[in-house]
Amino acid sequence: MIDLNPPYGGRLVDLVVPAAAAAELKDHAGRLPSIQLSERATCDLELLACGAFSPLDRFMGSRDLRRVLDEMRLASGAVFPIPITLPVAADAGFVVGGEVALRDSKNELLGVMEVEDAYPWDREELAQKVLGTLDPRHPLVAELGRWGPVNLSGRLRVLQLPAHVDFRDLRLTPVETRGRLWRAGRANVVAFQSRNPLHRIHEELTKRAAGMVDGTLLLHPSVGMTKPGDVDHYTRVRTYRALASHYYDPRRVVLALLPLAMRMAGPREALWHAIIRRNYGASHFVVGRDHASPGLDSAGKPFYGRYDAQQLVARFEPEIGVKVLSFAELVYLPAEERYEEVSKLPPNALTVALSGTRVRDEFLDRGRPLPAWFTRPEVAEILAETYPPRHRQGVCVWLTGLSGAGKSTTAEVLTVLLLEHGRQVTVLDGDVVRTHLSKGLGFSREDRDTNVRRIGFVAAEIVRHGGVAVCAAISPYRATRDEVRAMVGDDQFVEVFVDTPLDECERRDAKGLYAKARRGEIARWTGISDPYEAPEHAEVVLDTVSHTPEQNARRILALLAERGFLKLSAISRQLSVDGAAGDELSTASRPARADG
Length: 596
Ligand code: ADP
Ligand code: ADP
Description:
By secondary structure, this protein is an alpha/beta fold. The chain is 37% helix and 13% strand. A five-stranded parallel sheet has the order 10-9-8-11-12, with helices on both faces. A five-stranded parallel sheet has the order 16-17-15-18-19, with helices on both faces. A four-stranded mixed sheet has the order 1-3-4-7, with helices on one face.
């Protein structure tokens, strides 16, 4: 028989009402005003409800928040460094003394709060005291601006924990986690937090940590909200699972997911992480370098010191009842084929390390396998599936210009060349789209924008799934094109200005439409009776008067190749002989002349 570390404050909070009372509460909630919770508040509610934040049993009232900000303590005196609040709009429909129903983003009922306290709070004060900065580069500072001005607090009754259908077997409450740890049979439990895929260095770190205290390892990654731009949790959890099942002794490891909404608060966050893990049964908590780091500030400097988190957790060790296992940065010594902390290196040792940026740019984007010293092959394979090499990533080529400029003609040639180079292509031609996707739309500014946005939406989906979307639409308004660029993602968007002068388009007038427009028989004809806003930052500007459609299409192809969207070996020879790529790729454009 073993005794695990008891919960922080002695017992686990449990806010979920017994099944017998659920129907009545649900019925009651249906008659109350509703508050829709943000993703963050939903994560917080889940962890309050299951006891992960014990002894805290509600969103903080003004007395708790005051002490947390100033002293990292709840009103009761217990150490608790991070505010857990429910900020809402002032007109959110609550009354103090009344109740509100709490719903998630899909309006699913989660629980009921008795509103005992509703109080204003100060964004700057919270940012300064908890995060130590007002710099909007800090992801939470950036987010705080959108939180409501009034915090609600009061007794909570939770109907159900938010439903997760993914990785069900790994979603363990504190009670369930304790059960697993208890069966593993060791009183010492070393918890490890992560928001990144786990590489060899993390494996080494966790094995050393568990070995040091002869404990069970609790691999406990955060899968609620992490830093914007992080690897998505689906991919991460697949890597954790692969690693845990292949490289750890199954009797000494428990993998469980923590639906935590991280604050990226560095040292304060590390202390909070340790308290949370105690509630899940941990006696020890690993803190390495840059724990819960928000990255660099506007001046390019780190927000927190590399090892500040270790010091803060160590200072509170006796009070929180969790021991910190501190590690200096771990690096690899290729000559000795082993890992070591930078503080313990032999003199003049040659070391290697890989940053996340280099992993993306130098390995995954180029389809190169991650080195074996860095990542286990099972993990590398999962990452390569999520981040295929550039030549298998999606891209959108967006041709804009006057009617008759040559967008469709160029798009047709480009499509053939892309197919030749093994890419899957979907052409979205403005005119064609108007016969189905946008049937019934006219040529008012609104209708034109709607048409362009619809094309943009479809293009973004194609790109997300690794295809090439070639779009040819007049798309006369700059702001709407920029919107589409944002929808697709700047990195995957190539704007091509087919810069054919109005008089040339009019001279070509294949369908006689310019003539009609001149006679006033067509209203709102772009270039004549409706504006065309030329791009200011197009990636490519084409001249269709002195270049053939094929030459122009090959210029676009050259840019795609340069950006890595085509396999280079095959194309480089060809481009050097046909001369089309000889023109400088222009990024500027001439001013619009066709605004008559
Ligand atoms: P976060 O700390 O934001 O959750 P990570 O998932 O990158 O981010 O880190 C998980 C834990 O591993 C943290 O305690 C961190 O300090 C530690 N860690 C990550 N990389 C290293 C490294 N190269 N050397 C030492 N510790 C590390
Ligand atoms: P858009 O799609 O921009 O409305 P189209 O491609 O449908 O324009 O029409 C352009 C017309 O101009 C076609 O009849 C095409 O044959 C002719 N044309 C002449 N020279 C060129 C060129 N260099 N590039 C593209 N089209 C050209």
